[in-house]
Amino acid sequence: MADWDEIKRLAADFQKVQLSSSTQRLSERNCIEIVTWLIQRKMVDLIFTSDGKEYMTPAHLILIFTSDGKEYMTPAHLINDIRGELYVNGGRVNLVELAKIIGVDLSHINAHLNDVLKGHKDIHSVLGQLVDSTYITKIAGEINEKLQQQGQININDLTLQYDLPADFVQQHVVEKNLGKLIFGKQDKKDPRIFFTETFIARTKAKIRGALIGLTKPTPITVILSHADVSERLFFSLFDQCCSYGSLTSRLVGAQYVPNIYTRSQNEWVNNFYKQNGYLEFDALNRLGISDYKTYLKKLFANDDTILLKSCVISKNILDRAEADIEECINSKSYLDLQNNLPSVFNEQDIQIITETILNTKKLRETIVIENYILSKAFLETLIVDCSKKLEENANKVVENGKYQHYQTDLQILNLKTQKMRICQKKLKLTSGRREEKKQLVVRVVEVHKEEKRKQNQPRNIIEVGKHNIEEIFEQIQEKLEEEGLDMLIDSIANYLHPILNEKDITTELLNYIAAEENMNTVTDNFTNEQRLKFVNDLSQTYKNAFSTLTKTLSGQNVEEFLNSIDDALATCSMILKKIDKKKDRIVILNHKHSLLEQLDKCDDPALALHLTSLILFVSATQNMLHASGRHVSSILVFLKQFLPPEQAEELSSYHEFVTLMLGGGSEAENAKERLKEKLPIIKTIATEFKKINPEKS
Amino acid sequence: MVDEGTRKTLSNIPLLTTKAGPRDKELWIQRLKEEYQSLIKYVQNNKSADNDWFRLESNKEGTKWFGKCWYIHDLLKYEFAVEFDIPVTYPVTAPEIALPELDGKTAKMYRGGKICLSDHFKPLWARNVPKFGIGHAMALGLGPWLAVEIPDLISKGVVSYKEKANS
């Protein structure tokens, strides 16, 4: 049976399987125990490892267990293995990897590392790795290739790429093969950098190109980014390849300043300075010279210069200015420094200049006002001119009665001062619009006029005024003789008012309007015709009111004037202030009191009578009166109506005695005695009258 | 249930497909062929795992099996003869493995040295008819029995080490 044959075969196979492998298995299984036992007893003669191939002599009794404990090897074999693996792995192998590949503990490999290295100088142990010369040669070739490609190579990059310590790469790989396998140069400043000649040449060319192209100061960083050159390289090559400019420093933030720029800058500065004799600091700043002080010091080391607030000037300018001033002194005129010096100088500069120029001698001969220098001599001439003018003016003022108006018309003064204030305000506003320069000149002249006026005017006016008043009173007296006493007050008023107030007030108003309307006319000295013409030229708003006003000026009636001035003021949006009776009364009272005081102290009978008559007049009429002694008799006649008959009698007899006394002659002595007796009576009349008076007035 | 090692061993023994007993003639041959193939694989597995523990051979018809089995305890190898017949109702009935040497020395044994199998064996076998064969019977029956009984017998002094020139 074929099937049974098959069974037989299978049975035989079964037996074979059961028998064949069993012996071997047995021996391998016990191998570990046997070897251990042998090692313990130190009885080993011949030992075979698990694969039965390796033998060892008793001399190499030290065995190394593989990690799985199934294999044993001698140190020599291990060393051999390590070298073999190193070769297989292309000349570089990690010790940990080695331990895994060979199958022994890492400690065994470390322990036998020295044996591996012994006698083999081409093998290096680096950072837990074994590297031999073939590998070094290989990477040296690679490095060279890279160097030729990139032109520059850094050890640091290599250490990263090859995962080897920098020192090793430096000493054993690159420096050893420099010139043999690696063709390049070592950077003298940084031994870690290597580069090729072509690279250096290329970079130099790049830098040179960039630097030549620049015409203005440029930050290094910008150059670097444009030229794509490393900062370190730039600085090391800069000196070799550049004579076209300079660096402000050796730092990254430095600036490259091309020579051409410096040159043109210096040229400009020199030219400007030579031409103009000064240099503005602003201009230097605009040129990019921020540290102008040291720059100027360098530039004008030999020149004689003077530093001002905003610029530097040459001696020439100073000389010129000095000459100008001298000339101004000699020619007795004034000098505007602002005009004579370059326009860039500010006031502080000019101040410095004047301070330096004006020595004590010159100071004595000049006066400095802002930018103007006036010679004293010029001032003198001005003063002379002014005083002439002043006298004229003063005379005119007195002649046309302005001074009397000023003295007597206190009531209206109130109104005037107020109006003046408004006028001044308006004037100031309008004056602001005028040309500044012109104003300045006017102001300077005015300042001096005023100065002069202050000194001279009061006296002049007072003198002229006194003189004038006497004249006026003479005229008044003449009139007085023709007309009655009753007309005294009215005639004085009539006489004074048109001359003083009306014209004056009208003139003020016209002045105000002129200012308001921006007309450049000064109406002070207008004649009647001029005034009329001016009024006719005014706009419709003013015209009506003012034409009537000017008409009243020529008339003699005060009432008319007062009526028309209300209208005129209304057009100028002003209000006439009501007469302040209280204030008037106080003024009058004060006047009376001063008269009473004088009377009290008075011993002279004639003067006493004069004062008494004045006091009585004031008390009776509530108006002030200034009169000379000559008018006493007429005043007494006027006063008769206010006085009780006895007192009037008393006064007239007293007056007679006074005239007798003053007349001199035989009865003078007698009269004097009588007067002395009567003096107290007169005085009491004067003082007591005040008390009776209020009921009457 | 059987232990983890046994289970692993068992899973590595090839399963059989033919359901036939000694009296089934042609089919028995087929069955016997499968038995041998299975056993060869099992022994090979054992050898490769360094776990060889028996020798078996059969008569020409494959109905009677005999051989040796051994157990290593305390570095000593205890060896016993093993024999069994294939029952007529095989494979529904499992073979009764016997160790004649130990007859009467332990309670875990029937007359004639047939070993008492664990409670699990029979239901497990019944569930796996006809997939289990002789190899399974050895691995599942005799192996665990030896591992449990021999150390016990040695410690009782019932079985002692015989100096024997083997292998």
UniProtKB/TrEMBL annotation, chain A:
Q: Which UniProt keywords apply?
A: Ligase, Transferase, Ubl conjugation pathway
* Glycoprotein in keyword set: no
- Domain E3 UFM1-protein ligase 1-like, chain residue ranges per copy: 503-578
GO MF annotation list: ligase activity; UFM1 ligase activity
Where does the E3 UFM1-protein ligase-like C-terminal domain lie?
A: 585-677
The terms describing its cellular component in GO are:
endoplasmic reticulum membrane
Note the InterPro entries from the entry: Ufl1 (IPR018611), Ufl1-like_C (IPR056761), Ufl1_dom (IPR056580), Ufl1_N (IPR056579)
GO annotations under biological process?
A: protein K69-linked ufmylation; regulation of proteasomal ubiquitin-dependent protein catabolic process; response to endoplasmic reticulum stress
Q: Where is the E3 UFM1-protein ligase 1-like N-terminal domain?
A: 6-61, 63-296
Q: What does this protein do?
A: E3 UFM1-protein ligase that mediates ufmylation of target proteins.
Family in the record:
Belongs to the UFL1 family.
Q: What is this protein called?
A: E3 UFM1-protein ligase 1 homolog
What is the source species?
Popillia japonica
UniProtKB/TrEMBL annotation, chain B:
- Per the UniProt entry, what is one GO biological process? protein K69-linked ufmylation
Which Pfam families does this entry report, sorted A to Z?
A: UFC1 (PF08694)
Family as reported in the entry's similarity comment: Belongs to the ubiquitin-conjugating enzyme family. UFC1 subfamily.
| Active site location | C116 (glycyl thioester intermediate)
Can you list the GO cellular component terms from the UniProt entry?
cytoplasm
GO MF term list: UFM1 conjugating enzyme activity
Q: What is this protein called?
A: Ubiquitin-fold modifier-conjugating enzyme 1
Entry keywords, A to Z: Ubl conjugation pathway
Q: Which domain of life is it from?
A: Eukaryota
Fetch the InterPro entries from UniProt.
UBQ-conjugating_enzyme/RWD, Ufc1
Briefly, what is this protein's role? E2-like enzyme which forms an intermediate with UFM1 via a thioester linkage.
